[in-house]
Please model this.
Amino acid sequence: MDKLTQELLNTFQRDFPITSRPFSEMGRILSLNSVVPFSEFEIIKTLKDIKTKGIVTRIGPVFDHKKAGASLLAAIKVPPEHLDVVAEQINQYAEVNHNYGRENDYNLWFVVTSPTKEHLEQVLTDMELTTGFPVLRLPMEKSYHIDLGFHLWSKGKFKSGVSCHADKAAPQKTIASSNHAPLNSNEQKQLRIMIQDGLPLTQKPFLDLAERLNLSEDRVISTFNYWLETGLIKRIGLVTNHHRLGFNSNAMIVWNIPDSQVDKIGEAFKESGLVSLCYRRSRQEPEWSYNLYCMIHSRDRASVAEHVETLVTLCGLEDIPKEVLFSNQQFKQKGGQYLMSTATPLQGFQGNASNQEFSGKNGFRSNPSCLRSSTKSFDTCKLKSSSAEQGIRAV
Model:
């Protein structure tokens, strides 16, 4: 991997310049510590290249799920011989942005996003009818650390034997306030729909967005800063695919923490620097007793096990029930679709490249059907179970 790619990945997972020519500004910033300057053309060309290769899934905003709409972690127990079929059925929903196989009886885990809780529940019910299996619903109650920015290299070299968690993240920077008012609510909705799969990789992406909406570039830029200031956007930058960067030993660790201690433990996990994600979710008794979740991303399973043991010792959790769910397949990873649209993607936007799936055997494959509306069920490989047909849910 060349130096420019490494510098882009390390520097711009957050703090994407919110200015008229952001890629020129990125080149200027990276050139400060380089003998050879980086041009705007080189930055755009390199970003398009790593996007095509699947190293990044998109270049754009990461929305706060609570403020952007409704979302939910869900899981299904699937007979192993049917896993690929059911995973493909789940992938058909535009509302699904992440879909992973994990080492557990609940072996298919996915994230569903939508504009409203009502829409979310309709999607989950449709999934049960489509797949023939009950869906375990695990709504988030509180987030302690959700950023997933990876610090990948030190002095131009891969770190060895360690996880890829970023240093504790500072808030995304905004530019100085301007005299231009942000867009109204309807215009903001249209803009959000346009950028869910990323910003256009053009010299003036904010101008391209503005022209599509028949608005001024200044007001679009002001709106991005407004979203950052109000917390709707957590960060703007390169969103990486950790599998493509060699971080293939990744585990979700679930813990059954007494309710009176869960906030204290969650904050301790965050401060440890050992986890990339940490959040509290509702228990779903009797099926699922766990209420604290954390993710550890690493290049080898031994490092994950070491981090888990460190957390146990650090927080005195020797007697606390837990399970370590390593991911074994990445079926889908893309940006969350909090708002739905049937509009054709703009020329020059990231488009279908963000709808890539990963197969351990075959690598990435394009699947345009991932953008379908969930109003119709995917019936061709429908698997039925009596429990699902009777409307029984694992909640």
Remarks:
- The longest strand covers residues 322-333.
- Residues 117-131 form the longest helix (15 residues).
- The two ends are 46 Å apart (CA to CA).
